[in-house]
Give the backbone structure.
Amino acid sequence: MSGITVLAVVSEIYPLIKTGGLADVAGALAGALAAEGVAVVTLVPGYPAVMNKINAAEAVLAAPHLFGGKARVLRAKVAGLDLFVLDAPHLFARPGGPYAGPDGRDWPDNPFRFAALCQIAARLARGECPRFRPDVVHGHDWQAGLTAAYLTYDGRPRPATVITIHNLAFQGQCPAALLAPLGLPPRAFDVEGVEYYGTIGFLKAALALSDKITTVSPAYAAEIRTPEHGMGLDGLLRARSDSLTGILNGIDDAVWNPREDAWLAAPYSIQTRQKRSQNKPALQKHFGLTVERDALLFGVVSRLAWQKGIDLILANLERIEKIGGQLAVLGSGDPPFEEAFRVAAKARPGRVAVMTGYDERTAHMIQAGADALLIPSRFEPCGLTQLCAMRYGAVPVAARVGGLMDTIIDANEMAVAAKLGTGIHFSPTTRNGLGAAIERTRKLWDTPKVFDRIRANGMKTDVSWRGPAAAYARLFRELTPAAR
Ligand code: ADP
């Protein structure tokens, strides 16, 4: 088997810039694929957070007229990542996040910002950068969606293309009037091309025009072909069923390693997991909760968004208190949810506490100190927090949807008897569904031996990138006959 080269195209990458799991995946998958003989070079936008971390970089491609400004592509190695950075100050040198300004509103020129990323990706894909000719172009989410379109309508030979859907809720649409300004020919505006209900659809274009489509769990791959979860794209996804597969995400087991985690009061392994209990009082203190060994401590590490069922947690605070529980929430997102948790924490001192903002250390402390982690998602393409929770021995209490379905074995009676359960599932994702799961957690917790078995089973589960990376490598090889 010879090595193959992949050009990855993504709008965020850990540890340089991150708003969610997408960044984790882009960062960790590149490293894991190296072990499979796949060399990944990742094209990312040159946001300030990225530009500031580049030391030595070589300019490898010029783009003097890229949607109203001068741009260039830099090749750089940063934090173990091999990158192409699109240095286009008129598009990316701004305060705020990757997609929105400091006021939280999306940048109005987002179609051009990410079309620029895709145009450059198409040029790199065709070998315009010396000594770089990828076998496969791997785009992530809508921001990379037009890459396949630029490659298709150009008409010249192109490498194989793969698009990965991390979340179908984000599709990237813009008015049809932008077709020519985006550099797309009239024939691209077609049901078989970029047209999407009368607009231009970035993700839709990729789903129609890429050789293969993947998403981040087998269950989500099935769900998105149904009208209920297909978000308007289920018809197209059904039509492309033969090209669509689900490959689970993993987590970086060096970053998430309870044995060598400097952020923990007491690092531990599966063998020494009785030491884990020392992390609970540390977490309770960190959050200002009453230090009580016998309180069943639930944690939350999440974007505070409707998708994540945050309102259902808020609606169950009384139930958590009633069963003698506590709740430690780390999250950021919709301001009304942040405020609601602040109000709840004031009303229930010592029992409910919240920290808003993004904080890796606190996330690790929760996974190591909480007894259980609440994940009541309404939909979940894969989910990473349940993988971190299992690795750290916090029992996931999760909705039975998407990747949560594929990665957790429900500790029902049969599973407990067979010593197999790794967490608690519930369905439907409603207030009472979650409430009943909270009560079930308490019942299981009341039998420490059973609860510890569930915890140990989770800790034993392989949640690393090794299996998923091998699956991606197989897919890339299938698309590259010469490298098979
Ligand atoms: P999504 O990408 O939909 O937000 P995932 O579960 O796939 O959800 O990935 C989210 C990642 O971000 C996980 O690794 C989770 O632990 C982490 N995370 C989410 N919110 C925070 C936060 N406020 N502070 C630290 N880490 C967070």
Residues 20-21, 24, 301-303, 330-332, 358-360, 363, 382-385, 388 surround adenosine-5'-diphosphate (CB under 6 Å).
